[in-house]
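Quick one: structure for this chain?
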Amino acid sequence: MRSGLRLITHGFLPIILLTGFFVAGISGGSSCNTYPMIGPHYFLNKNHFVEGIPIWQNFTENKLVAQVNHRTLATIMTLLVSWKTISFLGMTGLTWQARVASALLLGSVWMQMGIGVSTIWKGAPVEWASSHQVGAMTVLTSFLFAMHTCRKVDPRHLKNLVGKMKLEDPEAFRKMTSNYNK
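Got it. Here's what it folds into:
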């Protein structure tokens, strides 16, 4: 899960947060109140972009393009987090803290997705848009908690534990290392 979460948190999540900032900054939440459709279409087409300005400016200043970009990336991230978390929870030997952190992450991402879709369907009233922003901080906190809780064990810690075992319980250390000498 660590490598998948690293991709999401170090690359995907900041981009989604940034696109959400653009949507909130230009009040783009009410530009299209259909989900998953964009009017009669599923995807953006050339008619949605404003001619005469650079294409990148459409992603930051065009209300429709900014909102659709944000919600498309968020949907992809929600599906990716769901897949990675469910595969992670299937692993054996996980601590209960890792399981709780993963379940919290999964729940917060789906809660945020639900709030976002409801905000779109309702036409982005202020109370729903505000709850969506609070949800973004919940998702960010869940990611950080999961990254901290589900991290790899540092090999230096294992070396220290083996050294401590050698000093405190030489018999157990001998039994453990005798298996490697065969």
